[in-house]
Amino acid sequence: MTQTRVALVTGAGKGIGRAVAASLSAHGHRVALASRNKADLEEVASTLDGPSLVVPTDVTDQHQVEAMFAAVEGEWGPVEILVANAGMSAAASVVDTSDELWQQTLDLNLTAPFRCLRRALPSMTDAGWGRVVVIASVVAKRGEPMVSAYAASKHGVLGLVRSASREVAASGVTVNAVCPAYVDTPMTDLSVDGIARRTGRSHDEARDLLARRQPHRRLVSVDEVASAVLFCVDNASVNGQGINVDGGAQQS
Question: Whole-model pTM?
Answer without folding.
Answer: 0.93
